Amino acid sequence: MSFKILAINPGSTSTKIAIYEDTKEIYKKNIEHPSEEIAKYKSITDQYEMRYKQIMDFLNENNFNVKELTAVVGRGGPLPPVRSGAYRVNDAMVDRLKNRPIIEHASNLGAIIAKEIAESIGVEAFIYDSISVDELDDIARISGVADIERQSLTHCLNMRAAAIKTAGNIGKNYKECNFVVAHLGGGISLSAHKKGRMVDMVSDVEGPFSPERAGVLPTDKLVSMCYTNEQPIVKKKLRGNGGLVSYLNTNSALEVENRINNGDEYAKLVYEAMAYQIAKAIGELSVVLEGKIDKIILTGGIAYSKMLTDWIVKRVAFIAPVEILPGENELESLALGALRVLKGEEEAYEYDLN
């Protein structure tokens, strides 16, 4: 028996969807939402009907009968801390995402739309590896200031998918392995995986700078900046105008590489500094695993950059072998997660948090 799964990943200006038959992608669509269309809605949940209709229109245009679906899986939005893996989308989850969202985030719609489609045809809806997955060891929560607790906010979906795939590639089960995984994208985050749990991480505000984000900064100078600038200015310097944008006025790694290839030494210094900081963060998480690491994994969109990954590998290869799995692969990660549940390889949790 084959399984057909619809995966839904809502973003700020798009809704990405794909249909998988077992592990094979059979349909894929990136539905764009122009900024003037998004501007009509006061909140994320107000966009629900518009996005739902456009998904159904695409399926109808391709003569796909939704009754063929075995399950629907949506991107898991910000929730109170949850475990890794699959959760069934139930009324409690929808109520939280609709009426008491932790933050206004497009991914809140993933579960809501998935449940609507699934209920209409009598199948189950899931989320998989929500943004809010938190499996940190207690020792990893200590920040250095008693009223600030470290929270697990990472690119969990792609990082765990890369770890699970790498475990299979080396003939092991994910729960038997230790990995350090670095997600290299517009934001950069890293995580330490110990026998099936993501026990520590370096979030995109705690570690390397990235194309648009500043990463960790000297706290004394950051405090001074906060006292001499308005809060929105500082926030924008940290997220949006940080990283490569701050130094090189571009968030495009490809453009930076072109500058380097044309002899721009400053661009090379900054780009290599990003690789240097990523390598340092890998070293930091290697200590968490006491050096017992099956693989270091580089994933995310910028992992396509051989220039960057070569610099990283040069610095970390002494720790463990490096696996490079470029791309964000979010739709595939969602679909394959749901497939493992349908095949009985994983259990889905029941969401019961307030």
UniProtKB/TrEMBL annotation:
Keyword annotations: ATP-binding, Cytoplasm, Kinase, Nucleotide-binding, Transferase
Subcellular compartments: Cytoplasm
Record carries keyword Secreted: no
Membrane-spanning segments: none
Main localization, broad class: cytoplasm
One of the record's GO molecular function terms: butyrate kinase activity
Reaction it catalyzes: butanoate + ATP = butanoyl phosphate + ADP
CDD domains, per the entry: ASKHA_NBD_BK
Domain of life from the UniProt record: Bacteria
The enzyme's E.C. designation: 2.7.2.7
Family: Belongs to the acetokinase family.
PANTHER family listed in its UniProt record: ACETATE KINASE, BUTYRATE KINASE 2-RELATED
Annotated NCBIfam families: butyr_kinase, PRK03011.1-5
Annotated protein name in UniProt: Probable butyrate kinase
Gene that encodes it: buk
